[in-house]
């Protein structure tokens, strides 16, 4: 049986139901004043200006009452069982129980829909797609709702495979696994670790569904390791026009490389076969450096480490370097005693929080809040959110927070040992706006150094424009992808790509403040777009691209995408596999408009 999900705050239980506010009571007209006893009653009085005014006043009251009643009746739908009931003035109907508000994790994009389906097996998925195609009713595939741009959201309807989440087959010798596409990354890793295998690479978090993480071209880090879509050997696609088809490079190489990063527009990914690797323990080494030293060692860092990333701290010269490599079979894990305890590393951040909290309370004339959480129970990312929430757009305040972060990382240098799925994760902090771009960085043998030039220009731009840019700006690398829709696609086997993400946190639920942060973020993003994207051939991650509202800007984006990606081939495949566009949404239609001439 198809089940509609009871949504909360997001697809990760973060959805809200929004109920309309009750009407304010309508003020009834005051009673008419008594007739003047000194005045004689007359059956045909001559109208006076005052009586005309009274008449117009009461007519106005009557019209107002009727209008409000009609607005109440037509603005708020009754449930089905009340469809034939007579409307009553000044009563409002709550939103129907089947109307859900669906948002992404950061709460930056949301839609309301009555149609949110969760099939329990592939047969139900096939039936659902077939029936909706016959009705020409949209059901956009959506995963865990983690994409910052809400690429999977659609008001008309969505299908989610959270209940189609089994490990179907494990080939221990070939290190391959076949899974249903709704399985989450962490569930998959837990399900295959007993076979001594794991995924080749991971993104920062583990809650993505496999189908979603592949379709948007997600990635981890490591200049020798490709994006996650390259781990896909074959997959099943449930299409509106051709039913369920199995795609591999042996059967149909052109469609295989096109549909691996298909943005959910060519079919619903139902099953995926992945090439895995041997499960290994990794040693994570975190240390603080600067641009001068990084330039000297950049090629070595990229080539000699299986995984490497840089965390740039705006308004400082601090670059946090994080490398991860397999534990040596001969030497074992390094023996290292950290110089500072966790409390000592956090002390500078806690001191700044205590000082800033008192300062802003005095400025706002607010008393101490007894419900304020104990700062000694807060993690570093929690403290950073609290600090930024005090004044998120004050550049001087953000600089202080960034300097405190640099000090925290300086006192957090050291080693950590664990399995790859434990080590390669990264605490990204709270809700946030993100723009991540991908651009070529030469080859592993000959890095172009464009990746470091990009970062130097970006930091100079931030300082010149006095952008309240929080930390970190995360920089990662991957090898190329053969998937033609991947931002890291290339025909040259030894090409490498750098991925750089700028952010602004949303550390408050205050609507006005969130709007101000959003405006500032898009200003920040626009400046990077104008100054850097074309110069470095940078293109945004599909899960982080934002569609402009301005028509000219949209046309420019569409033209730019056509230069980098096979838009005609993609739209041709859409017309063949989904001619009624039931798997599409407004974002996909705007990025790749399907014209009659295609």
UniProtKB/TrEMBL annotation:
Coiled coil: none
Keyword Ribonucleoprotein recorded: no
Short name of any one Pfam family annotated for the protein: FAD_binding_4
SUPFAM superfamilies the record matches: FAD-binding/transporter-associated domain-like
Keyword presence, Transmembrane: yes
Cofactor requirement: FAD
Ranges for domain FAD-binding PCMH-type: 109-279
Gene Ontology MF terms in the entry: D-arabinono-1,4-lactone oxidase activity; FAD binding; galactonolactone dehydrogenase activity
InterPro entries reported for this sequence: ALO_C, FAD-bd_PCMH, FAD-bd_PCMH-like_sf, FAD-bd_PCMH_sub1, FAD-bd_PCMH_sub2, FAD_lactone_oxidase-like, GL_DH, Oxid_FAD_bind_N
One Gene Ontology term, aspect cellular component: membrane
Biased composition (Pro residues): 27-36
Residue ranges crossing the lipid bilayer per the database entry: 58-76
Region (Disordered): 18-51
Keyword annotations of the record: Membrane, Oxidoreductase, Transmembrane, Transmembrane helix
Pathway connected to this protein: Cofactor biosynthesis; L-ascorbate biosynthesis
Name of the featured protein: FAD-binding PCMH-type domain-containing protein
């Amino acid at each position: 049986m198809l089940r509609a999900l009871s949504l909360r705050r997001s697809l990760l239980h973060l959805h809200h139901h929004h109920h309309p506010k009750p009407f304010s009571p309508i003020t009834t007209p005051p009673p008419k004043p008594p007739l003047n006893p000194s005045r004689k009653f007359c059956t045909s009085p001559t109208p006076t200006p005052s009586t005309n005014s009274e008449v117009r006043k009461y007519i106005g009251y009557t019209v107002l009452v009727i209008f409000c009643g009609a607005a109440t009746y037509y603005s708020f739908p009754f449930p089905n069982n009340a469809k034939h009931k007579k409307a009553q003035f000044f009563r409002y109907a709550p939103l129907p129980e089947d109307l859900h508000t669906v948002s992404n994790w950061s709460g930056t994009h949301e839609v309301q829909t009555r149609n949110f389906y969760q099939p329990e097996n592939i047969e139900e998925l096939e039936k659902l797609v077939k029936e909706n195609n016959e009705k020409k009713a949209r059901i956009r595939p959506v995963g865990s709702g983690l994409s910052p741009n809400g690429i999977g959201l659609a008001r008309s309807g969505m299908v989610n495979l959270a209940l189609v989440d089994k490990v179907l087959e494990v080939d221990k010798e070939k290190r391959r696994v076949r899974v249903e596409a709704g399985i989450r990354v962490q569930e998959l890793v837990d399900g295959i670790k007993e076979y001594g295998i794991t995924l080749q690479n991971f993104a920062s978090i583990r809650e993505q569904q496999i189908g979603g993480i592949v379709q948007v071209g997600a990635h981890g880090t490591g200049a020798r390791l490709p994006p996650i879509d390259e781990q896909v050997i074959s997959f099943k696609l449930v299409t509106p026009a051709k039913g369920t088809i199995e795609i591999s490079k042996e059967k149909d190489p052109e469609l295989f490389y096109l549909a691996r990063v298909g943005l959910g527009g060519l079919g619903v990914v139902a099953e995926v076969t992945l090439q895995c690797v041997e499960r290994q323990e990794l040693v994570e080494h975190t240390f603080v450096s600067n641009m001068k030293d990084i330039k000297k060692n950049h090629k070595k860092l990229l080539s000699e480490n299986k995984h490497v990333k840089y965390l740039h701290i705006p308004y400082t010269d601090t670059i946090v370097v994080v490398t991860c490599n397999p534990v040596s079979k001969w030497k074992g894990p390094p023996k290292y005693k950290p110089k500072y305890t966790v409390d000592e590393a956090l002390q500078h951040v806690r001191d700044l929080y205590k000082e800033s909290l008192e300062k802003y309370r005095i400025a706002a004339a607010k008393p101490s809040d007894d419900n304020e959480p104990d700062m000694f129970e807060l993690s570093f990312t929690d403290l950073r959110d609290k600090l930024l929430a005090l004044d998120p757009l004050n550049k001087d305040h953000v600089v202080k927070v960034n300097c405190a972060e640099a000090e925290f990382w300086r006192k957090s240098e050291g080693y950590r040992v664990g399995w790859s799925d434990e080590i390669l994760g990264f605490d990204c902090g709270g809700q946030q706006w993100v723009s991540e771009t991908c651009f070529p960085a030469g080859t592993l043998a000959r890095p172009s150094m464009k990746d470091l030039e990009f970062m130097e220009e970006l930091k100079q731009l931030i300082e010149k424009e006095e952008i309240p840019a929080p930390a970190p700006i995360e920089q990662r690398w991957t090898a190329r992808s053969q998937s033609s829709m991947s931002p890291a696609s290339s025909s040259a086997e030894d090409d490498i790509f750098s991925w750089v993400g700028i952010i602004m946190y949303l550390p408050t639920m205050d609507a006005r403040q969130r709007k101000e942060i959003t405006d500032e973020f898009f200003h920040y993003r626009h400046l990077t777009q104008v100054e850097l994207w074309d110069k470095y051939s940078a293109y945004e991650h599909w899960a982080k691209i934002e569609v402009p509202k301005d028509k000219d800007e949209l046309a420019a984006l569409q033209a730019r995408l056509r230069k980098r990606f096979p838009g005609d081939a993609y739209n041709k495949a859409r017309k063949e596999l989904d001619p009624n566009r039931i798997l599409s949404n407004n974002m996909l239609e705007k990025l790749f408009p399907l014209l009659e001439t295609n």
